[in-house]
Amino acid sequence: MTGSLTGKVAFITGAARGQGRAHAVAMAREGADIIAVDICRQIESNPYPLATPEDLDETARAVGELGGRIVARIADVRERHELRDAVAAGVTEFGKIDIVVANAGILPMAMGKPDPMQFVDASDVDLLGVLNTVAVSVPHLPDGSSIIVTGSTAGMIRGTTDNPNMGPGGAGYGWSKRVVIEYVEEMSLHLAPRMIRINAIHPTNVNTDLLQNDGMYSMFRPDLTAAGKQATREDAEPLFTIFQAMPIPYVEPEDIANLAVFLAGDKSRYITGQQIRVDGGSLLKWPNGPGR
């Protein structure tokens, strides 16, 4: 621990597990206090399990083990008033917010049953959730604060998440992540006079539940699906490696959190409006999408 975030307060969405938990733990290790939120219930169109209250409790425990302070609240990023209440609780406890990590995201794959609500829910969480998170945070941010948005390298590459086999939810995910790029660049100009910076991190495959689920395994092994078999992690994981230029199936949540800690701290004080990929060379390997 170098204490690079000592005295700062980080507000993190999607913090119950995966990348969100990694951000909370990494920032607490560097001395930050944490305001952690997650929906902790299912969204009907999303086929894989979302986080639970017990997952959020585990994040709080992990932060506490590091000696960190945390305010953990159940909140849906689609509902601005729920985020506003969570922020109010955190500000009451800690007095301010210095770091915002708009991380919550879902990928509602069709699983053979396309439904327009999959697009609605994906865009509501992955895009509106970002807008809501920033909106409730900005009034509390002192000059020199940092906002970090989770994007997606796959969202940058046509023919991946917007592959017709992914259905409306995949299209909504990819569309949302592409709009986030423009949002970050536009907001950076409006926040710059106060020395507040905003940047997006665009991961490749990350070893989280969004990747490790039956629906995603089926996407990577359509041959097994066509044969009436359920693809497993062991079936699909060798093909995960195809997406990256480096010979890796995925990165770990901690790899994303390492960059977020840097962007949250004072050493990145003049970095803003950037789209930073942690992608093992994915975008350079597939600039127009696999098979195009």
TrEMBL record:
Record bears the keyword NAD: yes
Recorded superkingdom: Bacteria
Alphabetical UniProt keywords: NAD, Oxidoreductase
GO molecular function, one term: oxidoreductase activity, acting on the CH-OH group of donors, NAD or NADP as acceptor
EC identifiers of the protein: 1.1.1.-
Pfam families, sorted: adh_short (PF00106), adh_short_C2 (PF13561)
Homology family: Belongs to the short-chain dehydrogenases/reductases (SDR) family.
NCBIfam families given in the database record: PRK12826.1-3, SDR_subfam_1
PANTHER family recorded: 3-OXOACYL-[ACYL-CARRIER-PROTEIN] REDUCTASE, SHORT-CHAIN DEHYDROGENASES/REDUCTASES FAMILY MEMBER
Name this polypeptide is given: Putative short-chain type dehydrogenase/reductase
Lineage: Bacteria, Bacillati, Actinomycetota, Actinomycetes, Mycobacteriales
